[in-house]
Specification:
Length: 352
Amino acid sequence: MLEPLRLRQSLNFTTLISNAANPASTGTMRLATGDTIVWRNNANSGDITLSKTAADNLLFSSGIVATAAMGAQFFTTNTANTAASGAIRLASSESVAWRNNANSADLLLSKSTTDILTWASGLQVAFFQSPTVNPAGTGQIRLAKTDAISWRNNANSADLPLAINGSDQITFNSLPLLTSAILTFKSEYQNNTAVTISNSATEQTLMTFTLPANELSGTQYLEIFGSGNVVDGSGTISAVLKIYLDGNVIVSNLSGTIGLGNTIGWKATARYGLVTGGAGGTIECYADLTDTANTTNQTNAGNVPASSMAVATTTFAFDTTATHVIKITTTMSSANAANTTTQRMMHINRIG
């Protein structure tokens, strides 16, 4: 058995080679893969070892205090399953720690079991930016248009997101936050040029408007107003007026007998309120069509209540990503050049 070599003075050598099998082939001190360099600790209670792991990483059994610049390809711990990349490579359960200013506890930067970074104290940064494409360019929290800030509901059954919709309105749980700051009024359509239909006993369109695609969202709704008159130039005619949404008759009105030479006025009002958006969206419709000859003959061919009913209970399919046609039509009971229906105006406004 070889005895340790104890020196009482300096020893100069060109190369020091370990007696173990397969030592290093270069270097001043050439060690085998299982060799170590060992110091006794200051308390004389144990050894401090510098060795090499099976993954060919240097392992020092105690901490390393760097008093000057220390260069390395990367630093890794001796724990199993450390990170495979990065300058500092830690295992899943490990942390980076600082001592607090009060010298009473450590502050840990670590990772949860759901792979989220955790920090026990406050975090001060210039801003937080989402990794999503095209985040905001200003502000302390910079989100892209599809990002959200979410809370878990009290029942722990769903998330409550704070986000924006396609109309750039702030939404909470998909509903716009309609405050005085973001409530909008838009005049979609105004036509004050009279349109007159005469000499016809078939259904004819008076005024029409095509609502652009993606014009309604959230809880927005449309208000429609139209007015005009019917002239009986041949004697005892009546007229049927209708309000349409696409192919759906929202409400129709059969006037009473007008009488030769008489003129009656008529008024149409409607509200179309969005229930759900998207390609499979729905819309709730209410309409009222009255005339000065008869206010009791209203019918609702689309099963949508007219003014004689208190609430609307029927919805129509309404694809918010497509265009939609709103129109008012007339059908006179007999064709005569002297029988006319006129629409004098049509106004459509978007609210919300």
